[in-house]
Design goal:
Elements (H helix, E strand, L loop, with lengths): L5 H17 L12 H17 L4 H16 L10 H14 L11 H19 L1 H4 L5 H19 L3 H17 E3 L1 H5 L8 H14 L3 H12 L8 H22 L4 H10 L2 H11 L6 H5 L2 H52 L6 H20 L7 H14 L8 E3 L7 H28 L4 H24 L12 H26 L2 H35 L1
Parallel strand pairs: 1-2
Helix pairs in contact: 1-8, 2-22, 3-4, 3-7, 4-5, 5-7, 5-12, 7-11, 8-10, 10-13, 11-12, 14-16, 14-18, 16-17, 16-18, 16-20, 17-20, 19-21, 20-21
């Protein structure tokens, strides 16, 4: 009978510790918020979810960042108190449904205060701040990392980090970097582990830049979560340089090579996590030592995850199209009305209806054409999972090789071909709209719609491949569609990234509704407590 690898045994132990951490602690005072106020806050947060929709696992931290920015407006105030920020922040997050009521210990509020004090210290003691040159982007980046630490403190990711460490240790052994990459200066040898670490996080849990940056800080500086005064001062002096090096690692040209490998082989790790997370028995280690039982459990986990993936794709399609409708379409239609008046163009409600229907039908088509993993994929998933669980004499290796060198002439030819494809794509779109007598402003708006929808649709199609291990081959039709559609999709990516910075409706909610609504919910909760006290007096 095959034997469990030492790294698998360590992973099992960490998952058992995670299960113990979920059990309620006796005699520990927990934070309670009023249920009625919570329902009102949850309703508002659901609206916000539609307005600035992100991947599901990023929504909670997005809320923390939003609420932190609102409460963290001025560091110059002399009576600054982390306690005055931390308690309302935690209460607001629980009311909004991001954390469970009566589950978080009251002691966490003081932990959050320490975190806030730490990042205020870093902001105030970095050389740029003293010169009055602290940039908005740097300030926002520090708050984003602070939000990651706050989320980790309120809901420790014991299980997720255990799986990341497990896959990271495996990929360090399996990924072989071609020596030409080092000799050509494409990657420094000492940066290889960081590139693998980033790729593992992106592939396993689709983590974004702030949380990966926070994890790299903890990876490089073991004292990050609990630094001494000297350590903290040292960090503050060099924080800009530290964050710049992390940004360089995240944007490294070789990162996509490492990510491609980790993305293809992340499914076995996710399935093993599902098996270990299930309530199978008190001694899970003994159960996974039996290959037959393990294989059945992996198959069950695969089909559960496949079903959940289908639901996630549908939900992502609904949220993304709703988000585009509420934020982008409303804003752009208003813009179209304004532009029509500026250019003295006749405003046509039929054209406006087409502006709404075209992206809807396109998104529907993209969702309908999503390809789920084939039947052969489950066998590969089971086999690969068994490989990482047991000690194996035969080791798999994944090679990272440099790109083939292209001459200047070849690069020029390829660029011209791509430009020709882009010209045909956009030219065809313009010709269709002109043929149906769409005004200039409407043509521009519709092209923007189509680009945004294609980008959102591609993201959903990529999500459908999360469980896919088998290599997929693209045919001639896919090749031609890439030539014609890729330039429009890239425009959608550019517009989407720009929209995140200038989302007028999200900014409107943050500036004019967030704070008054939060104050109203706090007042509602206090009013409820007041009424409760009056009832108690009557009794």
């Amino acid at each position: 009978m095959p034997e469990l690898s030492s790294s698998t045994k360590e992973l099992v132990n960490k998952y058992q510790l995670w299960k113990i951490s979920l059990k309620p602690k006796e005699g520990v005072a927990t934070i309670h918020v009023d249920e009625v106020a919570s329902r009102v806050a949850v309703f508002y947060e659901q609206i916000r979810t539609i307005i600035d929709w992100k991947e599901e696992h990023l929504m909670r931290r997005a809320a923390i960042i939003r609420k932190l920015k609102r409460r963290f407006l001025d560091l110059e105030i002399s009576d600054f108190s982390a306690q005055s920020i931390s308690e309302p922040l935690v209460l607001e997050l629980i009311r909004g449904g991001y954390f469970s009521n009566d589950k978080i210990a009251e002691s966490k509020i003081s932990d959050i205060s320490k975190i806030i004090n730490k990042y205020v210290f870093i902001l105030r003691n970095n050389p740029e701040y003293k010169k009055g040159k602290t940039g908005v982007q740097f300030y926002a980046k520090i708050l984003e990392i602070a939000a990651c630490e706050i989320e980790e403190t309120l809901s420790p990711s014991i299980k997720e980090m255990a799986l990341i460490d497990f896959m990271f240790s495996q990929m360090q052994k399996k990924i072989r970097v071609n020596e030409n990459i080092y000799s050509r200066g494409l990657l420094k040898r000492e940066d290889t582990d960081v590139q693998i670490y980033i790729a593992v996080q992106r592939s396993l849990f689709k983590l974004d830049e702030p949380i990966i940056s926070y994890n790299i800080l903890r990876y490089k500086y073991s004292y990050w979560d609990n630094p001494s005064e000297d350590d903290l001062l040292k960090i503050s002096q060099g924080i800009k340089k530290i964050l710049k090096s992390i940004d360089s690692a995240l944007l490294h040209p070789m990162q996509k090579r490492f990510y491609k490998i980790c993305e293809r082989f992340d499914t076995p790790y996710l399935l093993l996590s599902d098996v270990l997370s299930a309530e199978l028995s008190e001694n899970i280690a003994e159960e996974i030592e039996n290959p037959v039982a393990l294989e059945n459990n992996i198959r069950n986990a695969y089909f559960v995850r496949l079903r959940d993936l289908g639901l996630k794709i549908k939900r992502a399609a609904i949220y993304s199209i709703t988000s585009i409708f509420i934020t982008k379409i409303i804003s752009l239609v208003i813009l179209e009305i304004i532009l029509a008046k500026i250019f003295n163009e006749a405003f046509n409600f039929i054209v406006l209806a087409a502006d709404v229907l075209i992206p809807t039908l396109l998104m529907t088509f993209l969702v309908m054409t999503v390809k789920m993993p084939s039947k052969n994929n489950v066998g590969l998933a089971v086999m690969e999972t068994m490989k990482i669980v047991y000690d194996n004499e035969k080791k798999d290796f994944y090679d990272v090789s440099p790109s083939k060198k292209r001459s200047l002439l070849m690069r020029l030819i390829l660029s011209l071909i791509y430009l020709a494809g882009a010209t045909i794509s956009f030219g065809l779109l313009v010709w269709i709209f002109v043929y149906f007598h769409f005004p200039i402003t409407s043509i521009a708006i519709n092209i923007m719609f189509i680009a945004l929808i294609l980008f959102a649709g591609k993201a959903i199609q990529r999500k459908a491949k999360e469980l896919t291990i088998e290599e997929t081959r693209e045919g001639f039709i896919e090749f031609i569609s890439d030539i014609l559609i890729l330039p429009i999709t890239e425009l959608g990516k550019l517009l989407s990234n720009t929209w995140k910075q200038y989302n007028a409706i999200a900014a409107f909610f943050s500036a004019l509704i967030d704070m008054p609504f939060s104050s109203f919910v706090e007042f509602l909760e206090r009013w409820r407590y007041f009424l409760r006290e009056r009832k108690d007096d009557i009794q």
